[in-house]
Amino acid sequence: MATKHLLASGHTACAGCGQATGARLVVDAAGPNTIIANSTGCLEVFTNIYPRTAWEVPWIHSLFENAASVASGIEAALSYLGKLDNTRVIAQAGDGSTADIGFQAISGMLERGHDILYVCYDNGAYMNTGVQRSSQTPFDASTTTTPAGKKSFGKKTLRKDLPLIFAAHGIPYSATASVAFPTDVQRKVKRALDIRGPKYLQIFVPCPLGWRHDPSLTYDVARLAVETGLFPIIEYRDGELTSARKISDPKPVEEYLKLQGRFRHLFASPEGAEEIKKIQAIADDNIRKLGLLREKSKKEPEPEPEPAEEAPELKKFTSEELAKFDGKDGRPAYIAYKGKVYDVSARDLWDGGDHMGLHEAGNDMTEELEDATHGEENLEDLPVVGELAG
Ligand SMILES: Cc1ncc(C[n+]2csc(CCOP(=O)(O)OP(=O)(O)O)c2C)c(N)n1
Ligand code: SF4
């Protein structure tokens, strides 16, 4: 039977909308005992075409500027009624609402210490009203209010560092995530909701309409934003940076920019090429100041395999034996999937024994891969070195 999602299908988001995927990941991870206050914006509009709604949890409309205030009232009422232990409150909005119009309401909510998770779906502009720039629009992106032309390369200013600004309120949890890494999004939602007090999560959600990219490339665009260093995946706990997704081999920013029409003008002139260098400098600066670069591990050569007998039987690994092949300190990296043990040591993506800071070698990954958007096909050409016992 298909899984029942708490954001049902049948809504009216554009094809490839990253926000639709992000919101479904969030509410599914939060579970049915959740109340959501939603600022107006694309998410509100495409999930509620009167008289229908796609939400399978209690959900309330709020103005563009006050989802955090509405959520604060809900949380205060639940607290008064003694129901806060069983119910989670989420306030959610786009980046225009979060970074600009609703900014002071969020700051107040955080300062008052409400037990609320605030989720910002960051598509880098006011998409619902026709792609106007927000303070989260990236440098040099062309929008309807920062159009690129003879005298301009698009938006002239940098993005506000919202996760840091909100972390500076002294809240217990402030983090970023991306729809390119759905398991990480859901893990962070659950982690945040397990913490009492105010939490902030900013999710990177490409918008094919506003960014002018092929709707089938949403996942690739989101992934490249992380792999270039332009959108760091980080966590602050109690104001301290506690984790950052490492990048083994940062991609040049051109790979990310060239997929999107909002940056097309940068590829049309020598002056545009100079602008791309400035965007590369933004990515490099993120990588440096947040320590995103994964240090190359010095791998020792693998021990020579035993000469093969005629028809070698696959070695049986117990979980304890598998755990020794963790890819660290020059040891080979093995993972188990559906009973087979694969050697992933030769894959750059498993450098140092973990994959993108998400999956650790030496483990059975069957469950983790089941809910990933990709995975099984990546194992096809890997050497099978044994079977998982039991
Ligand atoms: C005070 C106020 N100003 C403007 C609007 C019109 N308005 C509604 S949604 C929206 C843009 C929403 O942008 P964002 O929060 O980034 O969400 P997105 O649509 O991009 O997901 C605007 C300008 C409004 N509803 N209220
Ligand atoms: S305009 Fe962008 S954010 Fe809005 S529904 Fe379409 S793809 Fe999603």
**Which CATH C-level class of the largest domain is it?**
Alpha Beta
Number of domains: 2
Outline type: globular
End-to-end gap: 27 Å
Small-molecule binders: thiamine diphosphate, iron/sulfur cluster
- What is the CATH architecture term of the largest domain? 3-Layer(aba) Sandwich
- What fraction strand? 15-25%
Overall structural class, as computed from helix and strand content, comes to: alpha/beta
The CATH fourth-level homologous superfamily of the largest domain: Thiamin diphosphate (ThDP)-binding fold, Pyr/PP domains
Helical content class = 25-40%
Radius of gyration: 23 Å
Largest sheet, if any?
A: 8 strands, mixed
DSSP, total strands: 14
Strand/helix succession: HEHEHEHHEHEHEHHEEHHEHEEEEHHE
Separate helix tally: 14
Which fold name fills CATH's third level, the topology of the largest domain? Rossmann fold
Structural commentary:
The chain has 390 residues and is α/β, with parallel strands linked by helices. It folds into 2 domains: 18-290, Thiamin diphosphate (ThDP)-binding fold, Pyr/PP domains (Rossmann fold), CATH 3.40.50; 315-388, Cytochrome b5-like heme/steroid binding domain (Flavocytochrome B2, Chain A, domain 1), CATH 3.10.120.10. It is built from 14 helices and 14 strands. The chain has helices spanning 18-30, 42-47, 67-81, 95-101, 103-112, 162-167, 182-193, 208-211, 218-228, 253-257, 270-290, 319-323, 366-370, 376-379; strands spanning 34-39, 59-62, 88-94, 117-122, 173-178, 199-204, 234-237, 240-244, 315-317, 334-337, 340-343, 354-355, 359-360, 384-388. An 8-stranded mixed β-sheet has the order 2-1-3-4-6-5-7-8, sandwiched between helices. Strands 9-14-11-10 form a 4-stranded mixed β-sheet. It has a two-stranded antiparallel sheet with strand order 12-13. α1 crosses α7 and α3 (67-81) runs parallel beside α5. The longest helix has 21 residues, at 270-290. The two termini are 27 Å apart. The mean pLDDT is 93. The protein binds thiamine diphosphate (TPP) and iron/sulfur cluster. Thiamine diphosphate binds next to α2, β3 and α4.
